[in-house]
Design brief:
mainly alpha, nine-stranded mixed beta sheet, elongated
């Protein structure tokens, strides 16, 4: 069919009177279409065009070539050329020759619009009659494709970035932000860019690229690709457009992470555009990098690591998409010894490819992949490499790899720097050694011992309690989930599944380590489920595995948790005392047991078992760290059932572990035992000096323990039956802290009630508090204050008969002079009361 043609003449520059106009319009083009088409045909001349250009200058001016989609679905293809003003006058204008393609009608011979760029049928003047359709091109390759290889090579630094942007611009919905701007000195070079796009992009995408090879108004263009000259590049950049300055210095990087675009650029630079058609025959998304990268590698084109990764990943997902010949070529390209820039992602993709091809291809095809993977695992330290199976090497390939890598594996496993080797590295080396048949039997005990030590430490932070900050447990700590398995867990479990001797040795080593830090081992087992359900006893590992579940089930009952954990060992603490240490460490890892719990632990096993397990130290901590739950008669928290139990526990510990307990811990327990004897028994003489000496030896002694000992001493000294020698020693020791404790105890309600109701006790206190007026500096003011503030109110509350009894008792136990002193002291009190009464009456009168 014949397509409608149009001719349009623009206004001359500076001519305010004239306007652009259509000089000829073919049939079927409505006025509405012309109004839409006209803005697409207007072009501004570059700056600095001479008023009367020479023929050469005229030919050098831009010749815009435009392809646009119209509102009705039709398309417009047009070429404009600069011409002199009609009539020979000064000035230059554009003449546009355009073709309208109705909706649904393909271009002649199903050509692409850009192929008509160099058609010989474009004219630069309005013809007097019909002219040939410029879209009807001669058979064969279009002129636009000529020289594209050379052009692509010359634009190598910009290729990937431009192709990436053209791909984005070719989508169903145009990319936001305005058109892609190509800056070239010649419109022909912009057309060549579009020719590259038409050969590279799938047909449907290339046809969506509307364009013009020249404009001075890129910011207002509705087309997807526009060309501008260098002098207009800054305006395009200021408008926020994607600008590619292809006429300037090359960019530092290109492609912006678009692997497909980078691969396409390498294909063009290799002058192999026919590979785009080959790649489109392979399955995959239109712009998937894998098919194009596979095609390029099979053709011998050198690619980068990202492109090789894409090729290996695509082939791994579609192991049946390539025939045997292309599969072999791909493997050869991926394993080429000339490649020295492989990345971890590439090795991961190659590992997936090996897994997909293994068993589907001949071993001779996959052996180079296996060799590359194990070499990287040993030399590159890539812990994520998926290792092949033992039968991956057949014949001389495996022997050659083992001969090359075996000494390196043995040297690293037995090297001095192995102490800092990560778990994943050790696991990987052991797996590769077995894969290659390297004998590690001599090194295995040492390697496994180091591996067992590293596993708990590398899994979680040291010192984190099993139940502390991660969940509700016996300590009441509420916390977060312990987290998933560590990265090395899958490889470790595969190692244990593959190598029975390593599994046996490693589980035994972990079981031996568990008593020293059972909490860390328990946290490790929470995140890595080791296979220790076989015939090995492994009592400590079984307890560590049981602990989290026991804590969740028993809540805050630590004693119940301990019994359940201990049962899971399958051994009695009498037969294996170390299970005591493991169980105690699991339940009371970051805290001391309570006194009741310590008593339960002490009774659960003999002192010999606790001595062998080292758990006696936890019991000492429980006794020394106990705080009283009930106030004492003196009103302080230093006595009561908890204090009694702690003192009884201290007594038993001193008796059960006489050689083990020493230093400040022994002094602290002796303080507790002395406090018990002061309250309930007959301690050896020299109480005050004993308390002071033990406090000094127990430094730094806790406040609760010090107060407990002081309170027990002063309460015994306040008792009516205390020996006078002990009281004398106490008063003359001049210990301010002890005297203060005595003062507090004497002011409690228990003592005050006894003073009010027991005349003999009041007489005794009067005698004591007046007997040593010059005993140092601490005692006299306290004694005087107790007389005035404690004893005087008690005597005032007595009857006359009770006061007389106090006076008589003072005389019997002391002397007549002391009885007179009491009368004088009491009379001054009475006179003081009488005087205050008389004064009050006078004031009222």
């Amino acid at each position: 069919m014949s397509l409608a043609q149009m001719h349009y003449a623009s206004a001359a520059p500076g001519d305010q009177e004239a306007e652009g106009r259509f000089t000829a319009v073919g049939p079927g083009v409505s006025g509405t279409l012309l109004a839409e088409i006209e803005p697409l045909l207007r072009h501004g001349l570059p700056e600095g065009v001479a008023e009367r250009p020479t023929d050469g200058e005229l030919r050098s001016l831009p010749q815009p070539f435009t392809y646009a989609v119209l509102a009705d679905g039709g398309r417009l293809v047009a070429r404009s050329a600069a011409v002199r003003e009609t009539g020979g006058g000064p000035g230059v204008r554009f003449h546009a020759h355009a073709v309208h393609v109705p909706p649904g009608v393909p271009l002649p011979d199903d050509r692409m619009a850009v192929e008509a760029w160099r058609s010989p049928h474009w004219v630069a003047a309005t013809p007097g009659g019909p002219v040939p359709d410029p879209l009807s091109l001669p058979p064969g390759p279009a002129a636009v494709s000529e020289g594209l290889d050379d052009f692509a090579v010359s634009r190598g630094p910009w290729l990937a970035a431009v192709l990436a942007d053209l791909r984005r611009a070719s989508g169903v919905e145009p990319a936001g932000g305005g058109p892609v701007v190509l800056v070239e000195r010649q419109c022909a070079d912009v057309a060549r860019w579009l020719g590259l796009a038409s050969a590279t992009l799938p047909r449907a995408y290339a046809e969506r690229l509307t364009f013009t090879t020249y404009t001075r108004r890129p910011g207002s263009s509705t087309l997807r690709v526009v060309g501008v000259r260098p002098e207009d590049a800054e305006a395009a950049r200021s408008a926020g457009l994607r600008v590619h300055l292809c006429a300037g210095p090359p960019p530092a990087v290109g492609g912006a992470g678009d692997v497909w675009a980078v691969t396409a650029a390498r294909v063009w630079r290799s002058r192999s555009p026919e590979l785009f058609d080959v790649a489109r025959e392979l399955p995959g998304e239109p712009f998937a990098a894998g098919p194009l990268a596979v095609t390029a590698l099979c053709a011998g084109i050198t690619l980068g690591p990202d492109e090789r990764s894409a090729a290996a990943g695509w082939a791994a997902d579609r192991p049946y998409a390539l025939d045997a010949q292309r599969t072999a070529r791909l493997v050869e390209a991926l394993t080429s010894p000339a490649v020295d820039d492989r990345t971890g992602a590439e090795f991961d993709a190659v590992g997936r490819l090996f897994g997909a091809l293994e068993g589907r291809c001949l071993a001779s095809v996959t052996a180079p992949l296996a060799a590359m993977l194990v070499t990287e695992a040993v030399r590159g330290g890539n812990g994520s490499v998926e290792l092949p199976h033992r039968d991956a090497f057949t014949g001389p390939e495996g022997a050659a790899v083992a001969e090359r890598l075996g000494p390196e594996i043995l040297n690293e496993l037995g090297g001095g720097a192995a102490g800092t080797r990560p778990v994943a590295r050790t696991v990987q080396l052991l797996r590769v050694a077995r894969l290659l048949g390297v004998d590690t039997a001599e090194l295995l005990p040492e390697v496994v011992a180091r591996l067992a030590s590293a596993l708990p430490a590398e899994t979680v932070g040291c010192g984190e309690p099993v139940d502390g900050s991660r969940r509700e447990g016996p300590s009441g700590g509420a916390g977060a989930d312990p987290g998933g398995p560590p990265d090395f867990a899958p490889a470790l479990l595969e190692l244990l599944d593959e190598q029975f001797e390593v599994r046996t040795a490693l589980l035994g080593a972990l079981d031996r380590l568990a008593p020293d830090d059972p909490g860390a081992v328990a946290r490790f087992l929470e995140r890595v489920t080791l296979p220790f359900t076989g015939t090995q006893a492994l009592p400590h590992l079984r307890m560590c595995a049981e602990a989290p579940g026991a804590m969740a089930a028993q809540g805050g009952d630590r004693a119940a948790v301990w019994r359940r954990v201990l049962r899971s060992a399958g051994l009695s603490p009498f037969a294996e005392p170390l299970v005591l240490r493991t169980a105690v460490g699991l339940v009371w890892e970051d805290r001391a047991p309570s006194v009741e719990e310590a008593r339960m632990l002490l009774e659960a096993a003999t002192s010999d078992a606790h001595r062998a397990a080292g758990t006696w130290a936890r019991l000492v901590d429980a006794a020394l760290g106990a705080s009283a739950a009930e106030p004492s008669a003196a009103g302080s928290p230093a006595d009561g059932p908890a204090a009694d139990e702690a003192a009884a526990l201290a007594h038993d510990l001193l008796r059960g572990f006489p050689e083990e307990i020493g230093g400040r811990e022994r002094a602290g327990l002796l303080l507790l035992d002395l406090a018990r004897e002061l309250r309930t028994g007959a301690p050896d003489p020299g109480w005050t000096e004993t308390v002071r000496a033990l406090c000094a030896r127990a430094e730094p002694v806790g406040p609760a323990l010090r107060e407990r000992a002081h309170t027990a001493l002063v309460e015994r000294l306040l008792a009516p039956d205390r020996p006078g020698a002990e009281l004398y020693a106490f008063v003359h020791a001049d210990d301010a802290e002890l005297v203060a404790a005595y003062d507090r105890a004497a002011r409690t309600e228990t003592v005050r009630a006894r003073l009010r109701t027991q005349p003999a006790y009041a007489a005794d206190c009067f005698t004591v508090w007046t007997a040593h007026p010059h005993a140092g500096t601490a005692w006299p003011p306290v004694a005087a204050a107790l007389l005035a503030e404690v004893l005087r109110p008690a005597v005032r509350a007595m009857s006359a008969e009770e006061v007389a009894e106090v006076e008589a008792t003072v005389g019997r136990t002391g002397s007549s002079g002391r009885a007179g002193a009491f009368r004088a002291w009491n009379r001054s009190s009475a006179l003081g009361r009488l005087g205050r009464r008389i004064a009050g009456r006078v004031r009222r009168g």
